[in-house]
Amino acid sequence: MKKITILSGLTVLLFLLLLIFSARQPGAGDLSNGYPGSDDKCTVIMVGKRASVDGSTITTHTADCGLCDWTWRYVPAADHKPGETRRIFRISQTKSWPPDQGRKWDLIKNDFTGVEIPEISHTFGYMHGVFGYMNDQQLAMGESTIGNRPKMSNPTATPAMNLTMLTMLAMERCRTAREAIKLMGSLAEKYGYGGEDEGEMLAVADPEEVWVFEIMPVGPLWNQKSGKPGAIWCAQRVPDDEVSICPNESRIGEIDLDQPDFFMASPNVISYAVDNGLWHPESGQPFSWKKTYSPAAGSAASNWRRARMWRFFDLISPSLKFTPSLPNMDFPFSVKPDRKLSVKDVMNLCRDKGYGSFFDPTRGIRGGPYNNPNYETSARLISVKQAEYTTVTQCRNWLPAPVGGIVWLAWGAQDTSCFMPFYAGLKALPGSFSLGDHFVLNREAARWAFDYVDFHTQVCYSPALKEVKKAQSTWEDGALKQISEIDQKALEIYKKNPGQAADFLTAFCLNNAEQVVKAWWQLGDELLVKFDHFGYYDLERRTVERKPMEFPARWKKAVRIIDALLD
What we know:
By secondary structure, this protein is an alpha+beta fold. Helix content is 31%, strand content 16%. It has 13 helices and 20 strands. The protein has helices at 2-20, 104-107, 163-173, 177-191, 271-275, 289-293, 307-316, 343-350, 401-404, 446-459, 461-496, 498-530, 553-566, and strands spanning 44-47, 57-63, 73-75, 78-79, 85-89, 112-118, 122-123, 126-128, 132-135, 140-145, 200-205, 210-216, 232-238, 243-246, 263-265, 389-395, 406-411, 420-423, 536-538, 543-545. The strands form six sheets. A six-stranded antiparallel sheet has the order 14-1-2-16-17-18. It is globular, with a radius of gyration of 25 Å. The model is unreliable at 1-38 (pLDDT under 50).
């Protein structure tokens, strides 16, 4: 009888362990498709103008590095004299420097490639972080690393262009998505693409269109004297009434260059595959860009790192009934959403943790006593705890460019942050946006205010998040409601004096950001006090409740079972 009891206890204990670790991790440690760069985590969502509620094109970028330089700056428009040149620098996506050595965007000038290209007479003003995100013409971008076949990588110093440099040049010189794609592609072909960068994807948008632009190196033996393109690239347009996603996987499949309204590519797009034995015309198989240059095996069900693809399509088009077992390579390039998406919808998508799905990180008792989704990391979902920042860009064709374009920027982890609007026509960003790094707490750096809140939220996630959501409702939703009024005022001023409109928009954006950053520092303090010693400190009535915090029933049941086993 005693042996039976012991065996029963062990069975229950095993069952509990299975509950805790039931998140099987197929492919754990696997670098996605095995290609360099494929372990990156940046997610991009794209919405065509007829798929959005208000007719704007929308793109996103979750910069999920976890250790990159996060600083942002505004580069003003400028006029240039004939004969001036633009120097090309090597700009690492991931490298950061100690603050006492200087700021990244000054230090990158020490890594001059030796290449200078002719300057143009006028360059546009734009905002950028790791990449260029929006200029004063409403050209917008978002990025996701997609990897490439190993033989294509070119980690040498020969290529002069990398993705960051290409986005900044496009911001300076281009008005439309098509112009930007052609410029970036031609520069990469001529001067070479690679260095630290592998296969990369950009969502490139303007008020009319959203395109997926994918670019890859052509191997370490390339040099400019060869006369061959120093990069290979392809672009496909997202239909106006559809939406798409890039979860660190190549998204362009079969291409038809006879449809220039929907496809563009470098001249070597197919010949490179043939010359390198990556695709054989006589095989009878149609040429697929992604399967040829960056194949990614598996599905959400077989490799949980691939959960984002299925999760996105299941959220926005549940009527299509995609299953987690569908290989990611077989998902469509884009789909019509079951309902049109608002900017707030897209922000919520960026915050998605997979709740209610098989990949729910709080399923069972995996979220601990406070339903914390950040404990469980088996499935790679859209929202992650290590985000540097997230952008949601809007381009709106019914307004002049300086008023029509908006970058909504949220620092740090999406679930505990706040999206703040920055109009395309502003003339400055807050000074606090250009400060700080991961290794030195700096209360003058805006980003640290949001990490401060996030840190205190993790301690008792579910009750603390309620307080965060109240602040998000005040500041984020408040700004969303205010935008139409700001649009109208700015438009009225713009018709009379564009310069004054820029001043008005700058004042609004800076004032709002200053208030939000201040509110988040205060929120962090309040979370620390409110849940000190795991109590409920009422800050207004100056009372404290000593009753235990409410835990999920499944957690309390698990504790009782374990207690019984230990008795």
